[in-house]
Amino acid sequence: MMLLRFSEEGRFSLFGCRDRRGGVSLSSDAPPPPNSSISCQPRNPSLLSSVPSSSSAPSLSLPSSSRPLDSRAEDELTYEFGLSKFGGEVLYVHTPDGCRVFCKSGASSISGISYYRCMSCRKHPSPSVATIRVDHGLPQSLDVEHDPRCTQRDEQEIACSQVDRKVREVVKWSGIPSSLAFTLTHGILKTTGGEQLASKFAPYHIYRHRLDSTKRGSLPAMQDEFNLPEELTMTVDMPGLEAPLLLCASKELGIYIFASKYDVQLAGSADLIVGDSTFDAAPNGWQLLTLHMRFWSEHHQDFEWSTFLHAVMRSKNEVSYKYVFSELSRQWDSLGLKHTRRYFRFDYERAQLNAAEDVFGKDCVGGCMFHYSQAVIKNLKQHGLFSLYKSCQEFHSYVRYLLAVPLLPPDLIVLAAREILDHPPQLADRELCDRVAKFLAYFHDQWLVKTELRHWCFWQWDVRTTNVAEGFHSRLQQHPLVKKHPNLIGLVSFIRIWQSEQSTRKAQLVRGDKPKPRNPTYERQNKHLMHVFAKFDHLISTEQISFQDIFNYLCECRVALPEFALNGVTLKSVRKRKIDANDGIDSEPKKGKVPCRKEIDSSAVVEPSVEPREDSEDDLILDPNSSPNYNFSPPDETEIMRIAQLLCVDMPENASENQSSSMFTQASRPRSTGFSDPDGACGFRTIAQCIFGPETDEPIHGALRSAICAFLESQISIQPLPMWVISHAPSQRDLATHVHLMKGNDYWMTDLEIQAAALLLDVNIFVFDPQYQTWTPYYRTTLSQYIPYDTHHT
């Protein structure tokens, strides 16, 4: 028979063999009760030293008990001390047929003698109740007389009683719903002891009232916010092993700091600490600051994040933050860890950064790259340029270079940023150009002038964001014990339970357990970025670099940058970054059927300035209201003749007249498609068919390839390189090699050649991507920074 056994501390173990005295073996290494001069045998001798022997009852002289009605030999009885479901001290006396429970009724602090009375006998009117005298933790006799109506309790009832007590302790402060507590308790009992054990537990309609009564009797009115119950200031642990959880508090500043000494000591040895604040998971008028340490496992050469400090704060000024950081520094100083080298990463809240630098030093505090990118995109949106960012590939690439600038070495960041700011895209629409100028002025003032470079330089960092803290707060708001704006008791109760879970996890990591795996996609991207860091570091240490080397490096770094929707959140459902998930580089074009490319005349549509929208749109590209309308105006006969003369080819005999003008948006789908042979020249064949008509590509695609390659050779000779070349340049090879390979008849067209065709032929080319269901524009007047080229001279 499988049963549960509980020790005095409340722990229970599964066992299945009963000894001849009715005792139970806890484990194979548990020693048998030693022989003693007294007639009773303890079930667990190690518990004797922890049994209190003092109370308030005087010493009494009791007559010797007569033989009990269910007389047993003394050597068949065993005992152990424990706690009742209400936390009182009890004595369990085990017989081969069951167990009797004696509750403590009196004791003498002087003589060390205490008395325990049978709880079952007390339920019936009787002249005498079975009583056991205990002298300094040793029962004088277990063989006492009981009332005839007294019943024994079996091991399963004892187990259910202990489970009930532990559930009450957890539910009392945590705010766990009674239904959830009962469901979990029943599941544990059923899977541990089967139906027989679970049936001994009270049914839900009875147990619910018990738990609700426990919670109502425990939760204080909290008229004073700085008068927490003492139990809430201690960790969740076995009785007698609780440790202080409230590190310190300031009623004047309105701050509670929760952290155990062990957590602070462990965090003192960490090399990186990330912090963030939230209002949603804190009571109204409060904020919650959490600090997370990176635990490094030498054995596994890997790390895992763990929360070690919670600060509940009334205000978010610099004085409050400095109080929290100073107290943490003082604790590390007392442990001899103040001078350990560690780095702190926060978002760009000025009060937080200043306080951290004052306490820990200016060289030990940095910002978050995600918040940097989010701030740039937010300002882009406020200037009414977000639709242009989503629809114009060249402007999109231009902004992405600005977002990648912090990944450069510190001495190159300002130099590269100024070079990018000095060469913005030249748009046809004057109002859009003015908005771009205002956006670039913001970037210059905010990041090159006002913000310290050390706060937004992420060169060679493997952890560049505070996303671990942001993610913790997001999950925290979904937790059933916290939700949104919990009361102070509910939040502190959750902190106790969460600290208990994290403490157990830290013990597992210290023991040598493997850190939990992280997102494999982000890990591959991060591994690729670290490889790019190393390669560029080697380059700048061995030779003099040019702006082209810098832009090639930034192009490789862009795979680590997030994409944003209009409301400022990242895009996860639709990825615009076309990278190989295995090596993190741009994917090669795939052979197969290629959709028609159509030439489109479009005047830029001015996007109004907008404020951030509080919506949850994941992909603005699919929203027809988020992008301008396009006017489809195919080239007429005169334009076709001009392009034929530019390419030095004759007009095809089977040239057909293109369809009439029409309007379309990003949400529109192609009405007709063509087909070109997948022989490596399909991109050039498609452009030829879109201009001259179906099946006209055979004599023209070669001339178009040669003209585009010659045009590219003239453009890459310009120093500094035109921005449109940098924006579309491939990251796998240098431009000269790329153009040389492109001259071959079987080399696939890339974005660079499509943009070059738009500039060379003076047409707008829009490419429909069937995977993402979007149009990618390549404008004929996007930039003015290129040399006019005449193919008649080739």
TrEMBL record:
Residues 45-68, 624-634 have a biased composition (Low complexity). Residues 587-601 have a biased composition (Basic and acidic residues). It comes from the Eukaryota. Gene3D superfamilies: 3.90.70.80. Residues 25-71, 582-634 are annotated as: Disordered. Signal peptide: none annotated. Coiled coil: none annotated. This is MULE domain-containing protein. It comes from Steinernema glaseri.
